[in-house]
Design brief:
With about 110 residues, this protein is mostly beta strands. The protein has strands spanning about 5, 10-15, 20-25, 35-40, 45-50, 55-60, 65-70, 75-80, 90-100, 100-105, 110-114. Strands 2, 4, 5, 6, 9, 10 and 11 form a 7-stranded mixed sheet that branches. The N and C termini lie far apart (about 40 Å).
Length: about 110
């Protein structure tokens, strides 16, 4: 079984920072992109950031300049550094790894208080 384990979520005050980590384990291979998505209550799941195997990055407009995605492909690990957090960033954050198959983590809660 392939599992993606997210960590680093929690409760933080507005303006604070969190660093999310996601580590893939099991028979995972040929990952061409890693990313983070989030889903707030009552809203659609949305892309936050993606990084390809060539280190090309894409961010949703609302997080540009505040969030940074990085990876360690050899360790099947992707990170999301989140700075200047806002209450509207509150959501469950999901890790995704894309290859011949697509893998999802179970999500980690990020709550930003006013």
């Amino acid at each position: 079984q392939v599992q993606l384990a997210e960590s680093g979520g929690g409760l933080v005050q507005a303006g604070g920072s969190l660093r999310l980590s996601c580590v893939g384990s099991g028979s995972i291979f040929s990952i061409v992109a890693m990313g983070w998505y989030r889903q707030a209550p009552g809203k659609q799941r949305e892309l936050v950031a993606i990084i390809t195997s060539g280190s090309t990055t894409t961010y949703t407009d609302s997080v540009k300049g505040r969030f940074t995605i990085s990876r360690d492909s050899a360790k099947n690990t992707v990170y999301l550094q989140m700075n200047s957090l806002r209450p509207e960033d509150t959501a469950v954050y999901y890790c995704k790894m894309i290859g011949p198959r697509t893998y999802w983590g179970q999500g980690t809660q990020v709550t930003v208080s006013s």
